[in-house]
Structure to design on (754 residues):
């Protein structure tokens, strides 16, 4: 007998910790289709027949954010066998607001009163039996972090599911409201009664989504009933409903919750915030935290020791070396077997393809361990609080800062970090503009041009200006996307500042591991397939294997070069560069090394480091067109790994293509402007 | 008087919510309804948003959002 249990609750109530405890490693994180919301499913460790669905944390079942819509559809439409509503014992009053709304859906329900350890530490007392009696459902005290009470919780939940025990009908609405609800439910025809009653409540709350789902024929009579209700209740049924719920909650609290201390006592979190969101100290502290995070992941001069690798880079190097050994030995074996040239080439490129996926994993892992720690501790909310003023002007919020900052290191983890943003719209926009931040792989391109064509100017300034260009374009990009692509989505900032908590090592690691796994699976296929494809195109033409100059890719390069004529670089070698850049941006230098005159590998390395020039590129590029080319590669579609990350986080090809299309269009327009204006000025 | 007018350390009681649509719903969902007590804790370093205490927990909201909450 298969059973589905849904976990619902406010953000920061410990729901994910509970989910991890119940499912252990038997969980799978995917994406709800078309939105940037995680879909987390797992199997109960102690009973394989029980499937647990971790719904996104929400404060209510209003239809205004992707999370809320996902959560309520999962409850109302998919009808799990039972909902476990996790309530944070330290913040019962607010948490119960969602509880009442879930009760309004009529689905069998159980309450898990979490963080009981903190409740007890404060000296507060919550009478679970009384609460259970009043709400008509089991209320089980638990401490998710330690596993306390979980056995009892699951037994209660399974029992409620098996008995189809529905919660008590809504007692918080007065008789007049109750009869209006019933009348509207009757208007809605014959479907399931619980669903109709729920829809009635939502319609009275001016719920657009439910309103749209009503047939025209019935909509009129419903509207009339709502008008009547509004008139007789002083004009604002929506507020009355909210108020009724809170009044009822107030009564519950009075009867069941006894707080040890009066309000307004400074909590530990308040004390910590005195420093972390202090007018003067907040920014320096934040800068230090960001620096540490960045350094641990990307730095090659860790702790200011020349050449000392940071954990991130060290791990990356180690994994890269191990993979290299593995790949070399496999290639060796294949060659030794006497395989033909193309077979060896194919195997090598497949290994390279997989290798490039594997290469990103250490960075993603280290970064996400740090990010998860910051997020779970509650500090991220403070970051958003501090940075919001700046980001608000571009139509984003303070939370966009972290992903965009990470983008200067590598887009792949940066894109994955955009999950921490509050709204689906913010996440999508941030993901679309994060690749505009000049990542580490693009630097060799600038180094090459700077050393070759900008020898008498200040090379540092040139490179710096490209970085600035990325930031400026990102800002404009956000403004444009907000205005034209997402204008119907409202953005508000009201956000909770949760209590600071020490994250459990377990939850941090599970979170980071999920990211790594998700990336490897989803992004991996995109990267692998495209690497093999590009390899094939650059090593073959219609007569079989050949050099790159005669390959299909070269022909394609020749075929499309006219597209780039307005940008100043209509040469097949430049177009081929752009394409190989999509495997890894630094490949452009190696490609140029090859196509502009068979330059040695050592020379290529030196050019990438900006130590040597590549004079041959002067045949195709002058300073203006070089700048235009750098801008184009900065802004156009990022490497396939990043595209893979976009796909994984966006949850659909439609949105991935939109993101890529936007980036290509932006790249083209900006490069065009640079070419035109540049030629006028220089 | 609106929530925006309160200074850090000051308290007030919500009278009405002047917002509409999703903004209004969001405000109410977060516990801010007529009759509830609110206290301003601090202002962010750049001057916006503000941190308030309501129903026992901390919220942050932009001044333009605070403007829509009438207080006494």
């Amino acid at each position: 007998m298969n059973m589905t249990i849904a976990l619902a609750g406010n953000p920061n109530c410990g729901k994910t910790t509970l989910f991890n405890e119940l499912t252990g490693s038997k969980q799978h994180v995917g994406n709800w289709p078309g939105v940037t919301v995680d879909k987390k499913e797992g199997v109960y460790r102690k009973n394989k027949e029980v499937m647990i669905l971790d719904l996104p944390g929400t404060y209510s079942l209003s239809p205004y954010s992707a999370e809320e819509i996902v959560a309520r559809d999962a409850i109302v439409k998919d009808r799990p066998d039972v909902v476990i509503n996790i309530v944070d014992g330290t913040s019962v009053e607010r948490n119960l607001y969602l509880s009442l709304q879930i009760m309004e859906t009529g689905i069998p329900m159980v309450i898990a009163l979490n963080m009981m350890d903190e409740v007890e530490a404060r000296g507060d007392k919550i009478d679970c039996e009384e609460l259970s009696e009043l709400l008509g459902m089991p209320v089980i005290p638990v401490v998710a972090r330690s596993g306390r009470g979980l056995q009892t919780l699951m037994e209660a939940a399974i029992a409620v599911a098996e008995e189809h025990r529905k919660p008590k009908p809504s007692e918080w609405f007065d008789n007049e409201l109750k009869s209006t609800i019933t009348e509207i439910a009757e208007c809605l025809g014959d479907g399931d009664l619980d669903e109709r009653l729920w829809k009635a409540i939502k319609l009275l709350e001016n719920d657009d989504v439910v309103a749209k789902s009503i047939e025209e024929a019935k909509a009129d009579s419903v509207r009339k009933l709502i008008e009547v209700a509004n008139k007789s209740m002083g004009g604002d049924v929506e507020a009355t409903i909210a108020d009724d719920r809170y009044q009822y909650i107030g009564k519950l609290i009075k009867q069941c919750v006894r707080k040890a201390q009066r309000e307004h006592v400074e909590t530990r979190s308040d004390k910590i915030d005195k420093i972390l969101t202090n007018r003067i100290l907040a920014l320096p502290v934040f800068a230090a935290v960001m620096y540490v995070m960045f350094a641990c992941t990307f730095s090659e001069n860790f702790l200011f020791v020349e050449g000392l690798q940071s954990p991130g880079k060290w791990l990356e190097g180690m994994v890269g070396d191990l993979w290299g050994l593995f790949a070399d030995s496999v290639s060796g074996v294949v060659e030794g077997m006497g395989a033909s040239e193309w077979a060896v080439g194919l195997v090598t490129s497949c290994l390279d393809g997989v290798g490039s996926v594997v290469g990103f994993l250490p960075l993603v892992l280290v970064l996400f361990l740090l990010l998860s720690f910051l997020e779970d501790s509650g500090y991220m909310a403070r970051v958003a609080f501090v940075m919001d003023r700046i980001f608000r002007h571009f139509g984003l919020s303070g939370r966009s800062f972290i992903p965009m900052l990470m983008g200067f290191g590598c887009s792949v983890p940066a894109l994955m970090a955009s999950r921490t943003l509050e709204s689906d719209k913010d996440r999508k926009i941030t993901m679309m503009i994060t690749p505009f931040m000049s990542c580490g792989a693009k630097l060799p391109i600038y180094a090459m041009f700077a050393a070759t064509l900008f020898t008498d100017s200040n090379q540092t300034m040139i490179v710096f200006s490209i970085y600035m260009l990325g930031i400026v374009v990102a800002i404009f990009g956000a403004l444009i996307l907000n205005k034209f692509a997402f204008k119907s989505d409202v953005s508000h900032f009201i956000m909770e500042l949760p209590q600071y908590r020490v994250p459990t090592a377990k939850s941090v690691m599970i979170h980071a591991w999920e990211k790594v796994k998700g990336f490897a699976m989803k992004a991996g296929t995109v990267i692998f397939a495209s690497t093999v494809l590009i390899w094939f195109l650059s090593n073959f033409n219609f007569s079989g294997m050949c050099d790159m100059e005669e390959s299909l890719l070269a022909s394609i390069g020749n075929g499309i070069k006219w597209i780039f004529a307005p940008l100043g670089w209509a040469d097949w070698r430049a177009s081929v560069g752009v394409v190989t850049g999509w495997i890894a941006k630094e490949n452009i230098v190696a490609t140029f090394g090859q196509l502009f005159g068979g330059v040695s590998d050592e020379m290529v390395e030196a050019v990438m480091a900006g130590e040597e020039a590549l004079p041959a590129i002067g045949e195709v590029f002058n300073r203006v067109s070089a700048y235009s080319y750098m801008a184009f590669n900065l802004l156009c579609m990022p490497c396939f790994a990043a595209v893979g990350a976009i796909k994984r986080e966006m949850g659909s090809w439609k949105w991935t293509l939109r993101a890529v299309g936007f980036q290509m269009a932006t790249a083209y327009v900006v490069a065009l402007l640079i070419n035109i204006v540049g030629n006028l000025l220089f | 008087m609106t929530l925006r007018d309160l200074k850090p350390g000051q308290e007030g009681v919500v009278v009405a919510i002047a917002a509409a649509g999703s903004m209004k719903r969001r405000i109410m969902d977060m516990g801010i309804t007529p009759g509830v007590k609110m206290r301003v804790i601090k202002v962010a370093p750049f001057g916006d948003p503000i941190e308030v205490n309501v129903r026992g927990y901390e919220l942050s909201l932009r001044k333009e959002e605070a403007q829509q909450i009438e207080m006494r």
